[in-house]
Amino acid sequence: MSRAIASARRAPDGFLVISAAISVFVAALIIYPLGWVIFDVLFADWRFDSAPFVALSQESGLGALLLNTIIAIGAASAVALVIGSTFAWLSERTDVGMPFLGKMLPVIPLLIPPIAGAIGWVLLAAPRAGFLNSWLSSLASLVGFGQVGPLLNIFSWPGLIFVYVIYLTPHVYLSVAAGLRNLDPSLEEAARMSGARPLTILRDVTLPAVAPAVVSGGVLALITGFALFSVPVIVGGQGGIEVLSVRIVHSMIASYPPKTGVALLLGMAIVVLIGSSWMLQRAILRAGRFATIGGRGMRSAKVKLGAWRWPARIVMTSYLLISSVLPLAALAIVSVQPFWTANISFQHLTFKHYAALFSSNSFASTGLRNSVLLGVAGATLGMLIAAVISFYIARNRGSRLAGLIDAATKLPAAVSHLVIGIAFISAFAGAPFHLHGTLAILLMAYLVLYIPQASLTASAALAQVGKELVEASLIAGASTASTFMRVTLPLMMSGLTAGWTMLFVLTAGDITASAMLAGNRNPVAGFVILDLWTNGSFPPLAAFAMILTALLSTVVIVTMAWTWRRL
What we know:
Layout: H1 2-10, H2 14-42, H3 51-57, H4 62-93, H5 99-104, H6 114-125, H7 131-142, H8 157-182, H9 186-193, H10 198-209, H11 211-227, H12 230-238, H13 244-253, H14 260-286, H15 309-335, H16 352-357, H17 363-395, H18 400-414, H19 417-429, H20 439-463, H21 467-475, H22 480-508, H23 512-517, H24 525-534, H25 538-566
């Protein structure tokens, strides 16, 4: 049998050749723009050019810019680490109940594009016209405190960190919850049998055991925070708090000519910060031994919260209210107002903004159509390419080419989305490609940005397909292409569907790359939202954000339901 398999592998295989070609093309699509922008900016005319460094030195407030970035994202990541880890422990290790809602609560904010959530909280807590400030002021007058000034100000350091926390917490939760599910419960059971109290077990046994997952969640929160552009531009911009991501995008789209060199060097600062986070993670993980994955039959007894059960439920439900329900409610109210005002007049509510968005020639409807088109195309191509690459790497494990391709597909995860956006502008916007503002450059950029997530999902799905099934198909005389299409791909479908859903949401709701690569000829959702925000068109902006959120949520719910039915 082994000889037959070895002979099949030695024979020329058209599918593996095509797979190798696709893999090399994707790797080139990742490496070429990054190499080109570095060479074009720093080595003009084949000589080292110090002009970008001179231009960077002339930028104002660089020290404050870097400090703002570290404070905002560092503080938000720390708070998100505490909240996400606590919710993961409550859901996976206690009798808090709410089995479905408890597991979905922390990730629900991922269904709402960050820019929509940020705008929702602006509508709620803006000092002058925020709904919460108006309602709290009315309540204070009602109970005899008289007129009080705005109690909340979203355009502040606490406001900026608060909105960051909402969108960083789900990443921590997903990492820590997975670690707790895989944790061997024997240590916890031994501590419990020895009479240790639940909090003592949590502090001395559970948390040290899942330290890798906690650290990974914290690093993922940092990386996500550095890449976020929508939150600081919406919340921080009005409060005079500028961070690196905002300065980078403005250097590319608000300056003429674009300050590509300055943007690239600032982007490299983010790469250094991300690299430092990875190094810190590796150092912590090397410092000790942690959890082991137990067998399938091993389950941990749920910690009984007793009197704390209902307070825990209230806290988790309040998180849903704060992170999702309130901002969506604010968007819904403003979307049917003639203009944004804290005084709601029911007789003046109108759906004209929705009607205008759905008109065939509207800028917003074109952007929404383009985002859906790019989301479907990007998610489908991304997952298909990732499945082919994963299959090729698995069939050629140990070869140098497979190793290089595997490393290349993971490279965008270590590089800021902003740097990749700059690289695509430099490499493809001008001659000889002239792709600036086209859907083609957006599709290529989305594929590169999210190929790490796609490849990780595809690799996990492929790992669940037994090798013996593939080998049996090959021994039976089926070609590699037939084996992939008729055996491997169908068995990977549930995992690939989950990956497709994730890629669709990320692509259709993207704003970081869209802000730099989209144009008036081919707008996308993120570009439209930024344009409406800049023009102060709040009711149309709220209506557009509601439609986008409803669309993404529907796709997620439908694909999740389809996946569950197949299980």
